Amino acid sequence: TGLFTYDPGFTSTASCESALTYIDGDEGVLLHRGYPIGQLAEGSSFMEVCYLLLNGELPSQAELTDFTRTITRHTMVHEQLSSFFSGFRRDAHPMAVMCGVVGALSAFYHDSTDISDPDQRRISAHRLIAKMPTIAAMAYKYSVGQPFVYPRNDLSYAGNFLRMTFGVPAEEYEVIPAVEKAMDRIFILHADHEQNASTSTVRLAGSSGANPFACIAAGIACLWGPAHGGANEAALNMLKEIGTPDKIPHYIARAKDKNDPFRLMGFGHRVYKNYDPRATVMQKTVREVFDALKVTDPLFETALRLEEIALNDPYFVEKKLFPNVDFYSGIILSAIGFPTTMFTVLFALARTVGWVAQWNEMISDPGQKIGRPRQLYTGPTQRDYVPLSQR
Ligand code: CMC
């Protein structure tokens, strides 16, 4: 109509101003508050990255200790929340459980409805970051029929999550330092990624003034899709289906075939037209976890070979399709012991800090308006109603 810019998929529309995360997709650069993701993954901890995203600067030791104490104060969930789980079938996908249970938190924190109060917003952010590992572990425990394990605040964020997931009351659970480190790094790699689909969903939901717990539940729903967070699950399932490297050419041919909906999962990205810097760290972490656990996985060889073949194929070169964060993460998570259905849950857990930081940034922005895209109408022009008896 000339009135609106038509931009399906918002490929060229900036929906907000943000000081959190910078991506240069052509160069394969990802910065959080200016710091390169590789340096953060190498040198910092997830708690530091959470502090950085929420507050804009890296914490001093005293600030980090204080922040960590604040988060751990909120790790427990209301005992009544446990009964939500029993409403689900045991074989429910844990992402379905996450959508429901995280949304239900809204009903437990009525104080969080006053989003104009920065202190309330901060507490909601802390609650969400603190409770996501507890809820995620509960979703897993429910699916395998084991009792819920309460958090232990003397453990690290990642260590506590591993214990709540894999520990059982009958035995002492020993956190393996290399696995704890890998888990923490995976959380760092997923912490934020500017205006991706789920973050935009959280912002859009929040733009109406909705409760933050409900907004994060909306983000979880969006993340679930295989084109977004669900790709890590889909990528590992694909590698399992391919199996051995000799089958790769067949799948490469399928991925290139316009008439076949098959895509290489864990490949390609809306913004990166170069190697996803998170995939580089992820690939290195696979080896570290294998060494620590003294295991290996033939699917890793298949993945490396698939990457090599794809990166030398004109189709993938011309379309600038590279491995993304999800390509290798499944192999690590599987080695640690997570079933594939939990992969996207871990993504949601880690992305929660990005979601709440973006939500808070939006609410703090004086220019913030309700998100309300327009459309190009393609339906019938006005016509008169025909009574049922005359149709
Ligand atoms: N395998 C084969 N061909 C592909 C792939 C792939 N993985 N990804 C894109 N293409 C082709 C696509 O067919 C299209 O070809 P043409 O121009 O001839 O029609 C071209 O590349 C551009 O693709 P698009 O779908 O228009 O690009 P997009 O920016 O809308 O999609 C994407 C980005 C990530 C959804 C897509 O690359 C994809 O579906 N990848 C597989 C799923 C995946 O790994 N998702 C995780 C993304 S990173 C983590 C996250 O965001 O959660």
From TrEMBL:
Keyword Transferase appears in the UniProt entry: yes
Catalytic activity: oxaloacetate + acetyl-CoA + H2O = citrate + CoA + H(+)
UniProt keyword list: Acyltransferase, Membrane, Transferase, Transmembrane, Transmembrane helix, Tricarboxylic acid cycle
Keyword Ubl conjugation: no
Family, similarity comment: Belongs to the citrate synthase family.
Protein's name according to its UniProt entry: Citrate synthase
Gene Ontology CC: one annotated term: cytoplasm
Pathway(s): Carbohydrate metabolism; tricarboxylic acid cycle; isocitrate from oxaloacetate: step 1/2
Any GO MF annotation of the entry: citrate synthase activity
GO annotation terms (biological process): tricarboxylic acid cycle
Record CDD domains: EcCS_like
Catalytic residues in the record: H269, D326
One Pfam family from the record: Citrate_synt
Membrane-crossing segments per the record: 327-350
Domain of life of the native organism: Bacteria
